[in-house]
Amino acid sequence: MKKNTTLIQTHWGDGYQITSDIRALYPYEEHPDNIALVCKMAQYIGIEKDYVYKETSERIVPDIGVLQHFNSAPLGAISQSFVNSMSANERLATIENWKRLELFDLNEQPNIQTIALINNRNDRIARSKVFAQIIAEDLCFDYLVVIGTNVDGFNSYLLNAIDERVNTLLKNNDTEDLKAFLNQLNVLYSPQLWLEKINHTLEVPIQTSDITSVETLTAVLNTRLMNDADHMQKIITRYENWQMANSLLEIDDLASNSELLKETLHSIVSSKIVLIENAYVKPDQLTSYIADLAMKNQHQLIVGMQNIKGAGLNYVYMWQQWQKIYQICETLKSPITKQSEFRKQLLTLAQQPKFSAIEVDYLKQAMEIITHSEHAQNEFSQAEIKYIQEKNRRS
Question: pTM of the predicted model, to two decimals?
């Protein structure tokens, strides 16, 4: 103020004026308050908002940690997509990211399997405890996958956080909070919704009469999944968790049944935690570990959280590379792409050193389409396509 500086502030409501169609211009989920701040600066040098939106959305260079939900990638009989929320390092930012990307709503869809991916670090103990509390109190998931260092430590922090929550609800005989916690664990459904989720993974659907007991369900599944014991076991585990969850809600006096409640919840939680002990797990390995948790026809919504460095960094790089490959192929498949651009993008694709596990199936499908496109009917393009296809087969 001694130099006659003027302090200009944005209004708290300015971010709400950045509508969804404006945010859609940006290559990732840019925070509306940040866009509003740039607009405020531009206002004082005579630049219109529309020009700000156009220029910033076209020229912005995304940081490795930006909030982004990457395109879905086919992977055998399932598909995966990844949400990079790893830069949010506290509760409010993490929950806000889930709300902005509507992850709570996506979690409710019958074909979705939600994977909470925690990238833990042994030099961030305080942050580990914060995220253990977030998982225990706020977020929904089908599986919790923990990578990085000190994964056992994170697991102990999580179990302690869950114990604290359970002890509180026991003390207050709070059946509503018990119900909320079971909903977070994705084990509390009506029979109709449970059947809808399971039938999405089956060629021949099962009926309400087939889920009267685990024995009845097992007998029915034996006729449907004769050569897929893994698929059948996953359904049985979901059924047992669902039954245990419903049995807990039938308890009137929680405190008098505290041991039963704790043992049951521990059984449900332990079936959902996957600890990856290898701190140097490669992206393709992690993709495989996560894919093994899915059932046929499910889409895995993988939400990365807590830290971005370490094992999680290369995983994010893999998804960024996938986004680039996807966009190149979509350009090559487009009928409005010009010949010069087609050749340029095809050469860029051929120069990729290798393809990751999440790219292989998509590339196989995409190249079948591209090879028959109008711009590909020449010797150069056909040679490049065959080279890409061969490299993809070796991946």
Answer: 0.86
